[in-house]
Amino acid sequence: MAQARISAKANEGRFCRSSSMADRSSRLLESLDQLELRVEALREAATAVEQEKEVLLEMIHSIQNSQDMRQISDGEREELNLTANRLMGRTLTVEVSVETIRNPQQQESLKQATKVIDEVVSKFLDDLGNAKSHLMSLYSACSSEVPAGPVDQKFQSIVIGCALEDQKKIKRRLETLLRNIENSDRAIKLLEHSKGAASKTLLQNTESKFN
């Protein structure tokens, strides 16, 4: 009887310890789950800051190269460029880096996708129109919506092999390049229009002198 009571107490102690360990393990797991949510939120916030930095630099650069900047006095342009350079310098002081975890296959896919885009960019000066069409087909390959134009199927298969975060970055880079081309086209057209208007005015003034 005494031995039975001792065995019962020993078993009860083991049960309490097992129950306590299970509770502790459950609490630790719950804490880690909550921390995982916060880690993902941190990465998303850092990525948002990274994107905002890119947008700000692009906007500052766009202002510096805008047609309006060419149509003001040299003194005003110099003053505005100083302000723009100051803002760009302050923006560049913000350092944010979100590393993407990739397996070897994803690393190789990213390398191939980057190479394709870089090759198109290198042809900008030679044939801007063709480069723009090519970029559009690359961008369509990254879109989840039904594309309005042709899709580069080979590039699409490469992008699918990239990590999800890299897919988003590739799409953002293509969007930025297309915007830059659009801005360049607009600036060239405005410049040609200004030259045409100036030539017409000069011709009219010349004719009026002889009339």
From TrEMBL:
What does the entry give for GO biological process?
A: negative regulation of protein ubiquitination; positive regulation of proteasomal protein catabolic process; positive regulation of protein processing; protein stabilization
Question: Which segments of the protein form a coiled coil according to its record?
Answer: 25-59, 164-194
The record's listing under Gene3D superfamilies reads: 1.20.58.890
UniProt cross-references to SMART domains, sorted A to Z: BAG (SM00264)
Q: Which GO molecular function annotation, any one, does this entry have?
A: tau protein binding
Q: How does it assemble?
A: Binds to the ATPase domain of HSP/HSC70 chaperones. May interact with NWD1. Interacts with HSPA1A (via NBD), HSPA1B (via NBD) and HSPA8. May interact with DNJC9; the interaction seems to be histone-dependent.
Question: Where is the region Disordered?
Answer: 1-20
Q: What does this protein do?
A: Co-chaperone for HSP70 and HSC70 chaperone proteins. Acts as a nucleotide-exchange factor (NEF) promoting the release of ADP from the HSP70 and HSC70 proteins thereby triggering client/substrate protein release.
**Name of the gene this protein is made from:** BAG2
Q: A GO CC term?
A: protein folding chaperone complex
InterPro entries listed in its UniProt record: BAG2 (IPR037689), BAG_domain (IPR003103)
Statement: the UniProt record of this protein carries the keyword Oxidoreductase: no
Q: Which domain of life is it from?
A: Eukaryota
Q: Where are the transmembrane segments?
A: none
Q: Does the keyword Coiled coil apply?
A: yes
Which UniProt keyword terms apply here?
Answer: Acetylation, Chaperone, Coiled coil, Phosphoprotein
> Which taxonomic lineage is given here?
Eukaryota, Metazoa, Chordata, Craniata, Vertebrata
Query: Domain BAG: where?
Result: 109-189
Recorded protein name is: BAG family molecular chaperone regulator 2
